[in-house]
Write a structure and sequence with these properties.
Elements lengths: L4 H4 L7 H34 L5 H38 L14 H24 L14
Helix pairs in contact: 2-3, 3-4
Length: 144
C-alpha cells in the first residue's frame, strides 16, 4: 500500500472490528519492527556524539521510556480492548453473545488508551523540542 492510499480510505465506514484488525496488522506491526532499530541507532548516536550533544542522552531516555510504554499499550489494545470490540461486533450481527466485561463500559479502556496516547504525544513533543523539531545538528554526520 502506498503512503497516500490510507488518505483515500474511508475508515469511518469500516466496522470497528475491521478497523482494530487493520491497526494491529499495519500500525502495531510497524511499531514493533521499527522500534528496536531506532533504539539501536539512538544508542550508537549517543556513543558517537553524546559528548558534543548531551541532549542526545535525554532523547534516548525519552524514547526508551516511550518504547516500553508503547509496548504495554499495544498489548492492552490487542488483549483487552480489541477482542472486546470484536465481541461487540459479533453480538450486533447476532453471531455472538454480548457479555459485560470486567472493566465495565468499553469507554473505560478507551479512556485509558486516549490518556496513554496523550502521554506519548507529550513525550514526543519534548523530543521535538530537544531536537529543534527533529532537525539534525549542523555538525552531524550521515554515516551511522
Amino acid at each position: 500500500m502506498n503512503e497516500g492510499a490510507s488518505e483515500q480510505i474511508d475508515f469511518n465506514s469500516w466496522p470497528s472490528d475491521l478497523l482494530a484488525s487493520y491497526i494491529v496488522k499495519t500500525h502495531h506491526r510497524y511499531v514493533r519492527e521499527k522500534t528496536p532499530i531506532l533504539l539501536t541507532y539512538l544508542n550508537k548516536i549517543c556513543k558517537v556524539h553524546g559528548e558534543r550533544h548531551p541532549e542526545l542522552y535525554e532523547i534516548n531516555k525519552l524514547f526508551e521510556e516511550c518504547a516500553l510504554e508503547l509496548g504495554h499499550h499495544l498489548e492492552k489494545e490487542e488483549k483487552v480492548l480489541f477482542p472486546f470490540i470484536e465481541k461487540m461486533e459479533e453480538s450486533k450481527s447476532g453471531n455472538g453473545q454480548y457479555l459485560q466485561p470486567g472493566f465495565g463500559s468499553v469507554q473505560n479502556p478507551i479512556s485509558m488508551m486516549i490518556h496513554e496516547h496523550e502521554a506519548e504525544g507529550n513525550r514526543f513533543e519534548k523530543i521535538a523540542e530537544l531536537t529543534n523539531n527533529y532537525t539534525a545538528p549542523e555538525d552531524s554526520c550521515s554515516n551511522l
